[in-house]
Amino acid sequence: MLLTDVAVEHVLVSKKTGVRQTFVLHPFTDTQRESLGKFELVRDVPEPGRKDVRRSTYVSAAQLAELVAKGLLDQHNCYVRMCPAQGKYPGANNPIKKLLPGNIRAGSPFAAAIAAVDVSVPASRELRTALLRIGVKL
């Protein structure tokens, strides 16, 4: 399922021909067992003495709305895995993009879910556990 309430423009330039393709990307839910119906968050975690390690975790739509409302995605430099609405992305992996407030359609159900989040309430145990997988401690 695509979350079409969020749209991010992405330009892909071919290394061989230099042709530019513009895609409108949306977060999409995973189709695997444990992460079925959840969105993938990706973060580069610094490891001492090594290059950054890319880690990912999965969150529900309500948890994603909570993360956006509390500003935690931007604060911890997290990205969301995206895919185009029509067709297939030509690269090996679907790209990851920052989820900015300007990318969320005003008046959409996802915007309403963000507005309904009580930012004074601490994150749930399930959300804290998911964020620990990508090195974020709340």
Task: Describe the model.
- The chain has 138 residues and is of the alpha+beta class.
- It contains four helices and six strands.
- Strands 1, 2, 3, 4, 5 and 6 form a six-stranded antiparallel β-sheet that branches.
- The model has no long low-confidence stretch (mean pLDDT 90).
Give structural attributes:
about 140 residues; alpha+beta
Short account of what is shown:
The protein is an alpha+beta fold. The protein is 21% helix and 26% strand. It has four helices and six strands, in the order E-E-E-E-H-H-E-E-H-H.
Q: In DSSP terms, counting alpha (H) and pi (I) runs of 4 or more, how many helices?
A: 4
Instruction: Please bin the fraction of helical residues.
Output: 10-25%
Radius of gyration: 16 Å
Number of strands: 6
Uncertain segments are none
Q: What fraction strand?
A: 25-35%
Largest sheet: 6 strands, antiparallel
Structural class: alpha+beta
> What global shape is seen?
globular
H-E string: EEEEHHEEHH
| Overall pLDDT metric | 90
Terminal residue distance: 29 Å
